[in-house]
């Protein structure tokens, strides 16, 4: 195993631009076709050659049906599906930060959310293998919904919130995280609570309805009222309290909009 550091490459005649390009990344100066105005992307790090592909985020409360939706679309050709890295949150080198967070949020909220932020960034930066990417949640909802919920409910110390916010702001200022469309599976907290109980994930058995009501409100403020945080793309709302056959009809109705998200 041979470690090559950026500084040794630089002294061998490489500059920052060639080093980044070799790793599949470039620094953006301006973009021919960009999702965001060029002042929002200029100077940011982004993966090369992926600005013509479409990126769709599937957002929604816990147990709203995101994974089920992704599973349905995964049979579509020319589309890749990225599920949330929950298995990593349940097992990092033998530790379970998701379970720890639910047991003692004041102590372990920062641990889980730091790891969620890292693993989400890793998902966003992974090379695209198809013209359309459908991804479960985002680094944005991790911050705007879950970190915010911990902090506002008094379960995250202000210093932990400040450190996570500094990290988040650095990442979103310096790295381009493309998105063309946000699909919001809009459910009632009651529906999520029923589905969560039915799914029966061990760590989540302690989640009360009130927790889902808070995260629901944060989602509504972000994606419907647009009153809380930066919204990086248009939002397609799909009412998702319906049974599965009805949901599949809703997905078919919206298939074209979703698959051509970068032409909206
Ligand atoms: N439309 C639906 N009607 C009834 N149950 C559903 C529906 N969609 C998903 N489920 C079930 O609800 C639970 C949570 O769904 P899941 O897709 O895992 O949600 P998420 O990924 O948003 O947490 C699962 O047991 C799933 O089978
Ligand atoms: C993004 C994010 C998630 N979580 C928790 C919430 C749930 O218990 C799981 C994700 O499950 P879902 O069924 O896919 O909604 O992870 C969290 O605590 N913090 C986060 O940032």
Automatic annotation (TrEMBL):
<dbReference type="InterPro" id="IPR027417">
    <property type="entry name" value="P-loop_NTPase"/>
</dbReference>
<dbReference type="GO" id="GO:0071897">
    <property type="term" value="P:DNA biosynthetic process"/>
</dbReference>
<keyword id="KW-0496">Mitochondrion</keyword>
<feature type="domain" description="Deoxynucleoside kinase">
    <location>
        <begin position="58"/>
        <end position="260"/>
    </location>
</feature>
<keyword id="KW-0067">ATP-binding</keyword>
<dbReference type="Pfam" id="PF01712">
    <property type="entry name" value="dNK"/>
</dbReference>
<keyword id="KW-0732">Signal</keyword>
<keyword id="KW-0547">Nucleotide-binding</keyword>
<keyword id="KW-0809">Transit peptide</keyword>
<dbReference type="GO" id="GO:0004797">
    <property type="term" value="F:thymidine kinase activity"/>
</dbReference>
<protein>
    <recommendedName>
        <fullName>Thymidine kinase 2, mitochondrial</fullName>
        <ecNumber>2.7.1.21</ecNumber>
        <ecNumber>2.7.1.74</ecNumber>
    </recommendedName>
</protein>
<dbReference type="InterPro" id="IPR050566">
    <property type="entry name" value="Deoxyribonucleoside_kinase"/>
</dbReference>
<keyword id="KW-0418">Kinase</keyword>
<dbReference type="InterPro" id="IPR031314">
    <property type="entry name" value="DNK_dom"/>
</dbReference>
<dbReference type="GO" id="GO:0009117">
    <property type="term" value="P:nucleotide metabolic process"/>
</dbReference>
<dbReference type="GO" id="GO:0005739">
    <property type="term" value="C:mitochondrion"/>
</dbReference>
<dbReference type="GO" id="GO:1901135">
    <property type="term" value="P:carbohydrate derivative metabolic process"/>
</dbReference>
<keyword id="KW-0808">Transferase</keyword>
<keyword id="KW-0237">DNA synthesis</keyword>
<dbReference type="GO" id="GO:0004137">
    <property type="term" value="F:deoxycytidine kinase activity"/>
</dbReference>
<dbReference type="GO" id="GO:0005524">
    <property type="term" value="F:ATP binding"/>
</dbReference>
<comment type="similarity">
    <text>Belongs to the DCK/DGK family.</text>
</comment>
């Amino acid at each position: 195993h041979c470690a090559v550091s950026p500084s040794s490459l630089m002294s061998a005649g490489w500059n920052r631009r060639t080093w980044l390009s070799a790793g599949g990344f470039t620094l953006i100066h301006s973009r021919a076709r960009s999702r965001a105005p060029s002042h929002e992307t200029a100077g940011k790090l982004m993966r090369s050659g992926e600005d013509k592909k479409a990126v769709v985020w599937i957002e929604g409360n816990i147990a709203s049906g995101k994974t089920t939706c992704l599973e349905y679309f995964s049979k579509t050709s020319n589309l890749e599906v990225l599920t949330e890295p929950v298995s990593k949150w349940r097992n990092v080198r033998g530790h379970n930060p998701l379970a720890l967070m639910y047991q003692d949020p004041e102590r372990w909220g920062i641990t889980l959310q730091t790891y969620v932020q890292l693993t989400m960034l890793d998902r966003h930066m992974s090379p695209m293998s198809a013209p359309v990417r459908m991804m479960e949640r985002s680094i944005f909802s991790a911050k705007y919904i879950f970190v915010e919920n911990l902090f506002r409910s008094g379960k995250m110390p202000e210093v932990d919130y400040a450190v996570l916010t500094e990290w988040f702001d650095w990442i979103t200022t310096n790295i381009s995280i493309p998105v063309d469309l946000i699909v919001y599976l809009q459910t009632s907290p009651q529906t999520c609570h029923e589905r969560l109980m039915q799914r029966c994930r061990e760590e989540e058995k302690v989640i009360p309805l009130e927790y889902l009501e808070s995260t629901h409100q944060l989602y509504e403020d972000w994606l419907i009222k647009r009153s809380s945080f930066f919204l990086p793309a248009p939002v397609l709302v799909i009412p998702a309290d319906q049974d599965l056959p009805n949901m599949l009809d809703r997905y078919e109705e919206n298939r074209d909009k979703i698959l051509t998200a970068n032409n909206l």
